Amino acid sequence: MITLIKNIKAFRDGAWLPSEILIADSKIEKIEEKIDIAYDGLNVFDGQGKTAIPGYIDQHVHVTGGGGEGSFITQVPSMKFSAPVKAGVTTIVGLLGTDGTTRSVANLVAKTKALNEFGLTAYCLTGNYNYPSPTLTGSVLDDIVFVKEIIGVKIAICDHRSANMTVESLIKLASDARVAGLLSGKPGIVHLHTGSGKDKLDIIFKALENSNIPITTFRPTHLAPKYDEAIKFAKMGGFVDFTCDPESGDKRISLLCKALEEVPEGLMTISTDSNGSMPIWNEKKEMVGIGAGKIDALPEAISHMVLDHNVPLEKAIKVASENVAKALGVFPAKGILAPGSDADIVLLGEDVMPDTVFAMGRLMMKDHQMQVVEPFAEV
Predict the structure, then answer these.
(1) Residue 41: phi, psi to the nearest 5?
(2) Half-sphere exposure of 176 (CA within 13 A, CB side)
(3) pTM score
(4) DSSP 307-333
(5) Long-range contacts for 72-76 (Cβ within 8 Å, ≥24 apart)?
(6) Is the peptide bond before 246 cis (omega within 30 degrees of 0)?
(7) Are 292 and 74 contacting, i.e. CB atoms less than 8 angstroms apart?
(8) CB of 151 within 8 A of CB of 109?
(9) Which of 44, 61, 92, 318 has its CA at 20 to 30 Å from residue 68's CA atom?
(10) Cα gap 216→239, rounded to integer Å
(11) Which one-letter DSSP state was computed for residue 226?
(12) Can you tell me the distance from the alpha carbon of 241 to that of 244, in angstroms, rounded to the nearest whole number?
């Protein structure tokens, strides 16, 4: 299908300019002020003056659901197919958390495949908080090399729920992930949940000091409580990921804006921890409450950065688009609107929230209404 999106604004030549976007099947062919095309089967879409941005990328999503820290009834449900679309997220990286027992890598890969069938772009990570890592094939290296959707491994550090792995174990895991990435043309990353433990990011710094593994192999997340260490890590050349946390209100948004100024260009990303459990612990590490992450926290964070803190839109969206795409090795197919890129396009309303979404050239949502039938939507 050939689609012409008219009457929009897009960021071109350093400014937000009136634009049109021509899509052929799943790719962007042209972005210009005016595109003249004559084609009998042309599908013309009126953008109604809205602002076009690349589809968001969320690299930390519990697509099969997380939780269980408070017994079986506290398990978070798996993510609905419509949730990322409504949040303007067209590319997802799924993962496991504390629970690698009742939730498995096999479950995760199956859900990731389903998201791809639905029309989004989805990847996943093998492993979970535990070490040695649970896998699909029997090894982290083989999972990354042979399973199309798996691009790296997940592990937890400085957390009372983690496996308390040694520096040597982290080096070995990172070595396997890196070599697997080289063999398969994938990023081969070690995605690190970082908890509230007293050791903070020490194990990563020690692994870097005692190995030749590139710093970009290590991808720590949940870094707001470890802000100073995150800035140190970024200034060494590492990617740093901050979690959108609606419960923290403007305090978290202010921190994101501060990090935008202090983290070297291109090395800051944000993610949601969507559908992951968010337990509340007391000083004895006893759970006293529980919530769940939501994927719409990502566009809400961008909106608040722009509207409440005057961050330029083109700068704010990079932490959930271009920067993430580069970190995952999928740029320029993802993360940018340009000829040759995937046609993942989000049209924003005046509230800087997703209004209309195209994923791989397919219209998924129009004027906040889903255009693709979601299986078992009423279940």
Answers:
(1) -95, 15
(2) 19
(3) 0.96
(4) HTT---HHHHGGGGTHHHHHHTT-TTT
(5) 72/102, 74/277, 74/290, 75/99, 75/102, 75/277, 76/275, 76/276, 76/277, 76/292
(6) no
(7) no
(8) no
(9) 92
(10) 6
(11) G
(12) 10
Q: Are strands 362-366 and 354-359 parallel, antiparallel or unpaired?
A: antiparallel
| Predicted pLDDT at 281 | 66
- Cβ density class 277-299: b for 16+ within 10 Å, e for less: bbbebeeeeeeeebebbbbbbbb
Amino acid at 200: K
Of residues 273, 296, 342, 355, which has the active-site annotation?
273
Residue 222: both structure tokens together? 């949940």
**Catalytic site includes residue 25:** no
Closest CA to 130 of 164, 102, 177, 105: 164
Place of tokens 């995150």: 230
Distance CA 99, CA 68 (A): 7
Report how far apart, in Å, the C-alpha atoms of 168 and of each of 9, 173, 193, 266 are. 51, 9, 18, 30
Which residue numbers in the chain have pLDDT < 70?
A: 279, 281, 287, 379
> Residue 184 and residue 276: Cα distance in Å, rounded?
29
Instruction: Say which DSSP state 134 is in.
Output: P
Nearest 10 degrees: CA dihedral of 285, 290, 295, 300? Answer: -90
C-alpha distances in angstroms, 374 versus 2, 69, 71, 77, 195? 24, 30, 30, 16, 35
How many angstroms separate the CA atoms of 323 and 317, rounded?
Answer: 9
